[in-house]
Amino acid sequence: xxxxxxxxxxxxxxxxxxxxxxxxxxxxxxxxxxxxxxxxxxxxxxxxxxxxxxxxxxxxxxxxxxxxxxxxxxxxxxxxxxxxxxxxxxxxxxxxxxxxxxxxxxxxxxxxxxxxxxxxxxxxxxxxxxxxxxxxxxxxxxxxxxxxxxxxxxxxxxxxxxxxxxxxxxxxxxxxxxxxxxxxxxxxxxxxxxxxxxxxxxxxxxxxxxxxxxxxxxxxxxxxxxxxxxxxxxxxxxxxxxxxxxxxxxxxxxxxxxxxxxxxxxxxxxxxxxxxxxxxxxxxxxxxxxxxxxxx
Length: 296
What we know:
Elements: E1 3-14, E2 17-28, E3 32-36, H1 43-51, E4 58-63, H2 72-76, E5 78-81, H3 93-103, H4 109-119, H5 132-145, E6 150-154, H6 162-178, E7 182-187, H7 190-196, E8 199-204, E9 207-213, H8 214-219, E10 221-227, E11 239-245, E12 249-255, E13 266-269, H9 272-285
Helix pairs in contact: 4-5, 5-6
């Protein structure tokens, strides 16, 4: 299977602070990837490295088979929509499409014009007069009509109301179905990731905590509840993600590829929110946890 993003020991440092550390990823092509984590976790840094807007301090990153922004050909392979839906307030919708046509060799004007019609945007309307949802849709149109191999979306719906957010996500998924492209979507909204993504990366405190196929990750994680016991009594193939204890009861969230047969445990699967919060909590209590990854 081909890889759309490959990172090895990737890191980015600002003065004395690491915004991203020891990042190792193999992200398969053709997937809709959810990049999730708390504010300040390093999500935007990773995406800016992937788009070529930042250069690594350490390690390497390869996107669509080459170094990000290495040349014009490489630039055409990646589309990027930032959190603030960057459009030019003084330019009309039509002006934005004209600009996209002149700047992007693979520009698909039919796709752009069709999206504008379906969204009900007035081509003569200045972008500064559009609503937040309309500006986000215009920015998404520019990214999609560029026909990139990889479309990067950095918190594109963070400032939108629930209806505008749902319309944006629905529009995105329609475009993914129509065009062959990979997508990396950064969000702190687990519900958006659950509805749209089939691959997950959890990033906390500048480190990748887990990455892999979403269904496989959910199938491999369990909550164990039972009589209190110490961690060293659990089987070696059960990796502890988080734990909590009372005087008489222990609760463990574990990752394992093996069936759990111990009758003293009440075993249940995790929801996506449970899984994400478990890794966030685990990262908050220790920085020594080994990085996990599902390689494709």
